[in-house]
Amino acid sequence: MGLRTISESRCFGGVQGTYSHASTATGTEMRLSVFVPEQGRSSALPAVIYLSGLSCTEENFTVKAGAQRWAAELGLVVIAPDTSPRGPNVADDPAYDLGQGAGFYVDATESPWAPHFRMYSYVAEELPALIADKFPLRPGALGIMGHSMGGHGALVLGLREPGKFASVSALAPIVAPSQVPWGTKAFSAYLGQDRQLWRPYDATALVEDGHRRPDLIRIDQGEADKFLGEHLRPELFAAACARAGQAVEVHRHAGYDHGYFFVATLIGEHLRHHAELLAKR
Amino acid sequence: MGLRTISESRCFGGVQGTYSHASTATGTEMRLSVFVPEQGRSSALPAVIYLSGLSCTEENFTVKAGAQRWAAELGLVVIAPDTSPRGPNVADDPAYDLGQGAGFYVDATESPWAPHFRMYSYVAEELPALIADKFPLRPGALGIMGHSMGGHGALVLGLREPGKFASVSALAPIVAPSQVPWGTKAFSAYLGQDRQLWRPYDATALVEDGHRRPDLIRIDQGEADKFLGEHLRPELFAAACARAGQAVEVHRHAGYDHGYFFVATLIGEHLRHHAELLAKR
């Protein structure tokens, strides 16, 4: 698996890079951002995959979240993939919440999306193998987190792949896509009308259907987030976890909105959550 | 002086806002970004103006530097103005290093720039008065710093206005614009061909001409910065300061380039430099 270097910059003693590779999962060239702290020169390190939200590429998180400062301190590799396949030969939609930039971390079954929109397989299978091959990662010490649509992805991947991802957290996630407009629009397009087929991609449904994690799932949510009541609804996931006995903490923060100033404020605590769980691996 | 709120977001317990106002100095609507940490709700705080580099607006620093995390810890207000007047009725040039986005912190005397390109007066006079009026600032406790073209601006303003700016620092600054291509191009256009008229806008020349500061000037420079040898040349300023007895520290950092990953890595130490000097005011 070849990795093409788009850019590399020294940052907080480590290296912040942007790379691309030919993805077998999506059939496209996929970009990703990787920060390797200085400790990675001599040791294999725990790592966290960060999944971004609607309309983002691998770049938004990389330049806006300030994660490198904390990752350098904690000795964590941080990987941020793009949010969908892209390119002139890839299906798209003019809306920001469907198509390129809005992969929703599912394997699409419907036309015209099915050939390339396979972000679940990409993040669950191809990406972990790629980064393990190319960067100094400690086997088994991989966490996953995300923001908004990427928080949905992190919860779903964490619940379905507990053996692959040893820690899970989410910032302002879409926790019940089958029940909110962003999710029902995307799932109808990518997965079709049979709502039973949506359940493997809905964190709340996955908990209802028996999926569990042994570790605590951490969620943070801003209370001034304009998408909170319509699209995010963390209370639905919290209630399902309470009924099922799944450990979850939902921290609510007065005054914070949905943007990257919220992500930047909380990213340090989230990376610490992962570092503590991954230290045991 | 009215201030129009473009956006405000909670960030690290404080408020990160973007505002605009009708500038008397430039005759245009000018934008600025202001971070007020939580301490500003009950106290008047020291503040630092950050001047950005070529092609930047007030936004680049605001979203990329991660300054809010340190400013919240140190109790500093941080203000980032735009780098030039802008608008359809403002002179411009297709090059990235002249015209809109490239004000060079001078008061232009030449056509077509003179009517609006008055960034020296804007930063020296109008901006300090505006922020003192609108935000919880402690009188006399104002520092200035900048990056690249903005580092040039900070050094010049700091040397010419030591009574107004109580602390000065720069990241990868243009220290001798009269001697390098970026500066000679801009100064020829904005100030004309008489090089004597450039000296008040050249930090190295200002030191040669007797300008001094009582405090230490801090400069940081990446050694993998592709502009180092042609445009930045910190050794010219260091030599002038050594001859003149002006205290300066130039910290060089192996492997770091010119971009915001370098700024993000050093911004905490720079804000600390300012906080320590401003604490005495």
Automatic annotation (TrEMBL), chains A, B:
Indicate the segments annotated as coiled coil, or none if absent.
none
What UniProt keywords apply to this chain's record, in alphabetical order?
A: Hydrolase, Serine esterase
Question: Which Gene3D superfamilies does the record match to this protein?
Answer: alpha/beta hydrolase
This entry's Enzyme Commission designation comes to 3.1.2.12
Under the heading InterPro entries, the entry gives: AB_hydrolase_fold, Esterase-like, S-formylglutathione_hydrol
Q: Which GO terms describe its biological process?
A: formaldehyde catabolic process
Q: Name one GO cellular component term.
A: cytosol
- Protein name (Swiss-Prot/TrEMBL): S-formylglutathione hydrolase
Q: What is the lineage of its organism?
A: Bacteria, Pseudomonadati, Myxococcota, Polyangia, Nannocystales
